[in-house]
Amino acid sequence: MKEITASMAGTVWQVLVSEGEAVSEGQTVIILESMKMEIPVDATDGGTVESVKFASGDFVNEGDVLVTLK
Q1: What is the CATH number of the domain that holds 41?
Q2: Where is the Lipoyl-binding domain (predicted)?
Q3: Are 68 and 40 in contact (CB under 8 A)?
Protein backbone atom coordinates (compact mmCIF):
# COMPACT_ATOMS: atom_id res chain seq x y z
CA MET A 1 0.00 0.00 0.00
CA LYS A 2 1.27 3.46 -0.91
CA GLU A 3 0.33 6.54 1.10
CA ILE A 4 -0.03 10.15 -0.01
CA THR A 5 0.49 12.52 2.90
CA ALA A 6 -0.11 16.19 3.61
CA SER A 7 2.98 18.33 3.14
CA MET A 8 1.62 20.97 5.50
CA ALA A 9 -1.30 21.68 7.81
CA GLY A 10 -4.40 23.11 6.20
CA THR A 11 -8.00 22.55 5.18
CA VAL A 12 -8.98 20.13 2.43
CA TRP A 13 -10.32 22.47 -0.24
CA GLN A 14 -11.04 19.91 -2.96
CA VAL A 15 -10.79 16.12 -3.35
CA LEU A 16 -10.05 15.27 -7.00
CA VAL A 17 -10.11 11.45 -6.85
CA SER A 18 -12.45 8.75 -5.59
CA GLU A 19 -12.05 5.16 -4.42
CA GLY A 20 -11.33 2.73 -7.24
CA GLU A 21 -9.99 5.43 -9.58
CA ALA A 22 -6.64 4.92 -11.30
CA VAL A 23 -4.09 7.69 -10.73
CA SER A 24 -0.71 8.28 -12.30
CA GLU A 25 2.49 9.58 -10.76
CA GLY A 26 2.38 13.38 -10.51
CA GLN A 27 -1.41 13.61 -10.74
CA THR A 28 -3.00 16.06 -8.27
CA VAL A 29 -5.28 14.12 -5.91
CA ILE A 30 -6.22 16.75 -3.30
CA ILE A 31 -5.95 20.51 -3.01
CA LEU A 32 -5.28 21.93 0.44
CA GLU A 33 -5.92 25.51 1.48
CA SER A 34 -3.66 27.21 3.97
CA MET A 35 -3.29 30.93 4.63
CA LYS A 36 -5.56 31.64 1.61
CA MET A 37 -3.21 29.73 -0.71
CA GLU A 38 -4.15 26.60 -2.65
CA ILE A 39 -1.58 23.81 -2.32
CA PRO A 40 -1.89 20.82 -4.68
CA VAL A 41 -0.99 17.39 -3.29
CA ASP A 42 0.30 15.08 -6.03
CA ALA A 43 0.57 11.30 -6.18
CA THR A 44 4.17 10.18 -5.75
CA ASP A 45 3.41 6.84 -7.45
CA GLY A 46 0.77 5.49 -9.77
CA GLY A 47 -1.90 3.06 -8.63
CA THR A 48 -5.56 2.64 -7.79
CA VAL A 49 -7.14 4.70 -5.02
CA GLU A 50 -7.89 2.35 -2.12
CA SER A 51 -9.26 4.99 0.25
CA VAL A 52 -9.66 8.74 0.65
CA LYS A 53 -9.22 9.60 4.33
CA PHE A 54 -10.56 13.19 4.39
CA ALA A 55 -13.38 15.19 2.79
CA SER A 56 -13.66 18.81 1.70
CA GLY A 57 -13.65 21.10 4.71
CA ASP A 58 -11.67 18.74 6.96
CA PHE A 59 -8.55 20.07 8.70
CA VAL A 60 -5.35 18.04 8.27
CA ASN A 61 -1.95 18.21 9.93
CA GLU A 62 1.41 17.86 8.23
CA GLY A 63 2.11 14.17 7.66
CA ASP A 64 -1.52 13.00 7.82
CA VAL A 65 -2.32 10.25 5.31
CA LEU A 66 -4.75 11.73 2.79
CA VAL A 67 -5.07 8.94 0.22
CA THR A 68 -3.90 5.32 0.06
CA LEU A 69 -3.12 3.57 -3.23
CA LYS A 70 -2.83 -0.11 -4.05
Answers
A1: 2.40.50.100
A2: 1-70
A3: no
Q: How far apart are CA 34 and CA 45, in angstroms?
A: 24
Domain ranges, residue 63:
2-69
Taking only the tens place, the pLDDT of each residue in 6-56 is 999 999 999 999 999 999 999 999 999 999 999 999 999 999 999 999 999
The DSSP 8-state label assigned to residue 36 in this structure reads: T
The tally of domains found in the chain comes to: 1
- Overall pTM > 0.85: yes
d(CA 36, CA 25): 27
- Could you list the beta-strand ranges (E) of 1-70: 2-5, 10-15, 22-23, 28-34, 37-42, 47-52, 59-60, 65-69
